[in-house]
Amino acid sequence: MYWSINLVILVFVIVCALAAIYVKDLLATAVLFGAYSFMMCLLWAIMGAVDVAFTEASVGAGVSTVFFVAAVFRTSRRTKD
Amino acid sequence: MKLLSLIVVCLTGGLLLYGTADLPDWGDPNTPASLHLSKYYIENAIRDTEVPNLVTAVLADYRSIDTMLETAVVFCAGLACFMLLRDFTPKKDHYYRHVPSGVILHVKNPDRQIIAGNEFEDMDKEWLPPDTIIKTVCRMLIPFIQIYALYVVAHGDFSPGGGFQGGVILGSSFILLAISYNLKYLLKRVSEKFLGILSAAGVLVYMGIGLAAMVLGGNFLDYEKYAPIFGEHHIRALGMLGVEIGVGMSVTAVMVIIYINIVSEGKHDEGL
């Protein structure tokens, strides 16, 4: 049971990471990065590291996404490359 | 250039993957960390510190100097953001909205400070009427988020959480206020000076608890020495609560400082 949940989440982690690199819209990248952090948080929770999962959920998925969105709001939304 | 960077990335990734082959398996009982270190903490932490959450016992008691300097790093991050982004040049264009009639006044290059009366609202250049649904929902949610954040700080020694997580949640509740209303609404409630003092006070609370233990005749951050003042019962848990509150104060203030400086380009007037 555990390994199948692990596999699904790991696939999601890799998909989010690759999508965050290839998407041209930086706002979408910020949101994808938040999703990536949330998937990592689930992985930590499955491994039993609840404190790390909590930190990942609050810092990685929560506040750093807001910082990225704020930075995108003040710069440009499209990438050149 | 793109090909070169791709090669470098692939090489680094390959090296890292090659390096992971030597790492011990996850949860392997025969690694040095599991043989000596974890065993000591698991066997002695409850007896030494009377704190059920082992992670907090390690972070805030066995390795509390480490956590103190981590708090100092967070403070330095806020300070660096302030130093790099803060812009004190006064704004040239001011926009005021007459609230009863909705008329907007545009004031260019005022040669003296304008004091707007009660009927006028200092507004952003790109002003939109605040959405009632978002405002109402956030106004109802924020108190619960803040209570939860304080719960996480206070129960760091019994359940997952602690000063860092609780501070981030408390800070993001302020950020939610700025997003749902506007930046000026937040700055009216928590001033920049207050945030700066709070971020430094958190680190000082942590260091003060450590230094006071030295004054009472112990080592730096030796919470046992507070026993004559607060009683023997759960004295180490109490000391950990003290330092967690310091961490929480610092982290809360730094999160809000970073957000305000990024979103308003250091001008502290307009933003999301």
Automatic annotation (TrEMBL), chain A:
<keyword id="KW-0812">Transmembrane</keyword>
<dbReference type="Pfam" id="PF13244">
    <property type="entry name" value="MbhD"/>
</dbReference>
<keyword id="KW-1133">Transmembrane helix</keyword>
<keyword id="KW-0472">Membrane</keyword>
<protein>
    <submittedName>
        <fullName>DUF4040 domain-containing protein</fullName>
    </submittedName>
</protein>
<feature type="domain" description="MrpA C-terminal/MbhD">
    <location>
        <begin position="11"/>
        <end position="77"/>
    </location>
</feature>
<feature type="transmembrane region" description="Helical">
    <location>
        <begin position="53"/>
        <end position="73"/>
    </location>
</feature>
<feature type="transmembrane region" description="Helical">
    <location>
        <begin position="6"/>
        <end position="23"/>
    </location>
</feature>
<dbReference type="InterPro" id="IPR025383">
    <property type="entry name" value="MrpA_C/MbhD"/>
</dbReference>
<dbReference type="GO" id="GO:0005886">
    <property type="term" value="C:plasma membrane"/>
</dbReference>
<keyword id="KW-1003">Cell membrane</keyword>
<feature type="transmembrane region" description="Helical">
    <location>
        <begin position="30"/>
        <end position="47"/>
    </location>
</feature>
Automatic annotation (TrEMBL), chain B:
<comment type="similarity">
    <text>Belongs to the CPA3 antiporters (TC 2.A.63) subunit B family.</text>
</comment>
<feature type="domain" description="MrpA C-terminal/MbhE">
    <location>
        <begin position="33"/>
        <end position="93"/>
    </location>
</feature>
<dbReference type="InterPro" id="IPR007182">
    <property type="entry name" value="MnhB"/>
</dbReference>
<dbReference type="Pfam" id="PF20501">
    <property type="entry name" value="MbhE"/>
</dbReference>
<keyword id="KW-0812">Transmembrane</keyword>
<dbReference type="InterPro" id="IPR050622">
    <property type="entry name" value="CPA3_antiporter_subunitB"/>
</dbReference>
<feature type="transmembrane region" description="Helical">
    <location>
        <begin position="163"/>
        <end position="183"/>
    </location>
</feature>
<dbReference type="Pfam" id="PF04039">
    <property type="entry name" value="MnhB"/>
</dbReference>
<dbReference type="GO" id="GO:0005886">
    <property type="term" value="C:plasma membrane"/>
</dbReference>
<keyword id="KW-1003">Cell membrane</keyword>
<feature type="transmembrane region" description="Helical">
    <location>
        <begin position="133"/>
        <end position="151"/>
    </location>
</feature>
<feature type="transmembrane region" description="Helical">
    <location>
        <begin position="67"/>
        <end position="85"/>
    </location>
</feature>
<protein>
    <submittedName>
        <fullName>Na(+)/H(+) antiporter subunit B</fullName>
    </submittedName>
</protein>
<keyword id="KW-0472">Membrane</keyword>
<dbReference type="InterPro" id="IPR046806">
    <property type="entry name" value="MrpA_C/MbhE"/>
</dbReference>
<feature type="transmembrane region" description="Helical">
    <location>
        <begin position="195"/>
        <end position="217"/>
    </location>
</feature>
<keyword id="KW-1133">Transmembrane helix</keyword>
<feature type="domain" description="Na+/H+ antiporter MnhB subunit-related protein">
    <location>
        <begin position="133"/>
        <end position="256"/>
    </location>
</feature>
<feature type="transmembrane region" description="Helical">
    <location>
        <begin position="237"/>
        <end position="260"/>
    </location>
</feature>
